[in-house]
């Protein structure tokens, strides 16, 4: 019998001005054995932060690190958005403190975007910054959250209102972990993939439209290509603008309204689902100011619908959404700012001083309660 040749790993580079801003995103299968080398010889202790739902995976990572000679501990945190809380960060700081973690030790984040966000924040703030390696286990974490160094926690006033930029030393995207990811989470991750298609890589949109079934099959080659293309979009943007002084804002396509929906729904909506509605809104806004053609605006509806992502949100929640959007990080003073498209692959930021424009665009996507 012939052996099937192993598919080689793909390495996508993120670069920056400082040495610590240069790192690799490795995409492949069975990557755990790469972790010790990535941490390097100076690191003695490692805290593996993982959600409750991934206890076994967290323990495996810890055991492997122990076997490789590190002192490794786990910190199990609440699942999903509940983990992005100051009390969770505080719990992790306590574990680091009680175990005498120094500046030459490290944090490894194993989980979805919620975990990489809070663990990234912990790594950025402990002793003002220790080494971080991210090991995303959700599609959304792989294509977006684990790459780029943005981290954050939520406050009562809104999503991601506290956080820093702290690039990881490396990202290990082990595609095997997708085998256990629930389908609705895979579809949520697809919203960020689609976002990358709209803002920078139209081939992504073509691939999704041509292979609607394959994109939610964790073992498909199409999904792997979509993952690599999306990471490449993100890597290129953050390599040019780590701290979001300009270009990086395009990664926020669909997020101004999306984050407001998440807050209004008390985080019962998946991030990608909320971003999908946010992209529908951004497309209507762009259409209404004469920037986006009907064809490109309508493509938002057709492609998101193909994946079963939501396209609308409650009409009666407009005021709550507007209040939440005022706290978006792109807002300057009283001026709300939205990422819109001039065409597919041509994002720009639109200043919207006139709230009636927003209201009118919202009417196009609003549903009855
Ligand atoms: N920092 C960034 O650049 C950035 C980018 C995009 C999104 N985000 C943030 O990421 C979060 C969303 O990430 P997410 O969609 O991964 O959600 P998540 O982290 O909440 O994970 C979704 C669910 O899937 C579970 N899960 C994860 N991997 C699994 C696996 N392999 N098998 C079984 N279950 C698994 C999790 O435990 C959780 O219940 C949001 O908080 C969002 O704000 C951050
Ligand atoms: O990496 C970025 O920059 C992004 O905007 C990616 C988004 O997908 C992500 O959800 C991010 O967390 C949003 O950041 P925020 O600054 O709007 O909170
Ligand atoms: Zn996002």
TrEMBL record:
Q: In which pathway does it act?
A: Metabolic intermediate biosynthesis; chorismate biosynthesis; chorismate from D-erythrose 4-phosphate and phosphoenolpyruvate: step 2/7
List of residues binding NAD(+): 79-84, 113-117, 137-138, 150, 159, 177-180
Which residue ranges does the record assign to the 3-dehydroquinate synthase N-terminal domain? 76-187
Q: Which residues bind Zn(2+)?
A: 192, 255, 271
Q: Which GO terms describe its biological process?
A: amino acid biosynthetic process; aromatic amino acid family biosynthetic process; chorismate biosynthetic process
UniProt EC number? 4.2.3.4
Q: Where does the UniProt entry say this protein principally localizes? A: cytoplasm
List, separated by semicolons, the cofactors it needs: Co(2+); Zn(2+); NAD(+)
Please provide an example of a Pfam family that matches this protein in its UniProt record.
DHQ_synthase
Give the EC class as a word. lyase
What the record notes about the co-factor is: Binds 1 divalent metal cation per subunit. Can use either Co(2+) or Zn(2+).
- Which segments constitute the 3-dehydroquinate synthase C-terminal domain? 189-331
Q: Which GO terms describe its cellular component?
A: cytoplasm
Localization recorded for this chain is:
Cytoplasm
Annotated keywords: Amino-acid biosynthesis, Aromatic amino acid biosynthesis, Cobalt, Cytoplasm, Lyase, Metal-binding, NAD, Nucleotide-binding, Zinc
Q: Name one GO molecular function term.
A: metal ion binding
InterPro entries attached to this UniProt entry? Dehydroquinate_synthase, DHQ_synth_AroB, DHQ_synth_fam, DHQS/DOIS_N, DHQS_C
Which reactions are catalysed by this chain? 7-phospho-2-dehydro-3-deoxy-D-arabino-heptonate = 3-dehydroquinate + phosphate
Instruction: Please give the function described in this protein's UniProt entry.
Output: Catalyzes the conversion of 3-deoxy-D-arabino-heptulosonate 7-phosphate (DAHP) to dehydroquinate (DHQ).
Family stated for the protein in its record: Belongs to the sugar phosphate cyclases superfamily. Dehydroquinate synthase family.
Record PANTHER family = 3-DEHYDROQUINATE SYNTHASE, 3-DEHYDROQUINATE SYNTHASE, CHLOROPLASTIC
> What is the protein's name according to its record?
3-dehydroquinate synthase
Give the encoding gene's name: aroB
């Amino acid at each position: 019998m012939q052996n099937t040749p192993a598919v080689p790993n793909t390495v996508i580079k993120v670069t920056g001005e400082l040495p610590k801003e240069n790192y690799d995103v490795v995409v492949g299968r069975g990557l755990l054995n790469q972790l010790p080398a990535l941490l390097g010889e100076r690191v003695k202790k490692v805290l593996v932060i993982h959600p409750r739902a991934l206890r076994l995976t967290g323990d495996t990572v810890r055991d492997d690190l122990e076997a490789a000679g590190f002192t490794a501990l786990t910190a199990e945190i609440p699942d999903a958005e509940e983990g992005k809380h100051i009390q969770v960060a505080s719990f992790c700081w306590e574990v680091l403190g009680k175990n005498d973690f120094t500046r030459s030790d490290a944090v490894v984040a194993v989980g979805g975007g919620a975990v990489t966000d809070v663990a990234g924040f912990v790594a950025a703030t402990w002793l003002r910054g220790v080494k971080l390696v991210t090991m995303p286990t959700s599609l959304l974490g792989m294509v977006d959250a684990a790459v780029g160094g943005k981290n954050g926690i939520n406050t009562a006033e809104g999503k991601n209102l506290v956080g820093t930029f702290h690039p990881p030393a490396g990202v290990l995207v082990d595609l095997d972990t997708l085998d256990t990811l629930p389908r609705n989470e895979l579809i949520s991750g697809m919203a960020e993939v689609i976002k990358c298609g709209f803002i920078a890589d139209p081939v992504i949109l073509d691939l999704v439209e041509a292979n609607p079934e394959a994109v939610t099959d964790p073992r498909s080659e199409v999904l792997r290509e979509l993952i690599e293309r999306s990471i490449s979009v993100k890597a290129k943007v953050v390599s040019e603008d780590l701290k979001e002084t300009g270009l990086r804002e395009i990664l926020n396509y669909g997020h101004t309204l999306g984050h407001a929906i998440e807050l209004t729904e008390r985080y019962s909506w998946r991030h990608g689902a909320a971003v999908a509605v946010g992209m529908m809104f951004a497309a209507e806004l762009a259409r209404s100011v004469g920037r986006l053609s009907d064809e490109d605006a309508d493509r938002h509806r057709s492609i998101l619908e193909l994946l079963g992502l939501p396209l609308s949100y409650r009409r009666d929640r407009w005021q709550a959404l507007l209040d939440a959007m005022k706290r978006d990080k792109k807002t300057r003073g009283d001026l709300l700012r939205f990422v819109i498209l001039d065409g597919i692959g041509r994002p720009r930021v639109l200043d919207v001083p006139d709230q009636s424009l927003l209201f009118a665009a919202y009417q196009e996507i609003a549903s009855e309660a």
